[in-house]
Amino acid sequence: MGKDKATEPALVVQDTSVKFGDFTALYNIDLEVKPGEMVALIGASGSGKSTLLRTIDGLQVAAKGSGRILVFGRKVQRDGRLAKGLYYRRRDIGMIFQSFNLVGRLSLFSNVLIGVLGRIPTWRGVLGLYPAEDRQRAMDALERVGVAEFAGRRASKLSGGQKQRGAIARALAQRAKMILADEPIASLDPVSARHVMEQLQELNERDGITIVVSLHQVDFAIRYCQRVVALKDGRVIYDGSAKDMTKDDMIAVYGDEYEDAFWSMEAV
Q1: Model-level pTM greater than 0.85?
Q2: In terms of residue numbers, what domain contains 246?
Q3: Is 178 strand, coil or helix?
C-alpha cells in the first residue's frame, strides 16, 4: 500500500550539498518538515540559510551527486539536476524575499496578481486578462494582510512593511501550500517585523500553510516558530523545539557574541 498523503512530509531534503566553485555552501543537508509546521532557520550570515531556501525552491541547483528534494511528494531536483516541469511544481511554493521582489512600477494589486501566473494560460498573463475570481482573490488577500487601501499605489511608493505584507498577499493569491521566507523582516523596523511575523503565524495556524522562515533574530524565531533548525558553516548543528534551545546551543551557533542575534522584545 502507498503512503497516506496526509502523513507524507511537506518537505524532504536528502543528502544535499551546494558548491560555488571550490567553496561549499551546504554540506550533505538532511531535513524533513511536516505539513503545517512553522520552522525557523537561524544562523550567522554566510551559514547557508538563504542558499538552502533557494535550493528547495529550485532557484539554486544542488551539487552533482546530491540526493533529492521533494515538496509535497513532488521532485524539485535530484543529483544536481532540476526536475522537468519545475515551473508548474513551484505553484505550491510561495517565496518571500528580504528585498520584497516586487515590481516597483506596478501597483501593489498588479504585483499580487503575479502570484496567479502559474495557474492561468500564459497568454492571459501576457495580456493582463486575469479571471475575475483571481482578481477577487488578490483583493481578498490584500484585505487579509491589512494593505487593501494601498492596492492602487505603486510598489515603489510603499513602506518596507507594506511591501512585505504585499509579498505575503501574493503567496496567498498563488494558493501556496508552503511559504519559504528568506529574511522577511531583516529590512524592517521592530513593529513592522512583528506584524509580518504575526501574519505568517496566522497563515500557519489558520490555513495550515507550511512555513520555513530564515531569521537573524533568535527571539523572533523562538516566539513565533515551533521548531528551530540552526546552520553553521553550511551544516545543521541544531534541530529541535524552539523552546528547548539553551544558552549553550546559542553559543554553538553564534559564538560568544550570541546576544547580538537577539532583538529585544521590549522594542515591540
Answers
A1: yes
A2: 7-253
A3: strand
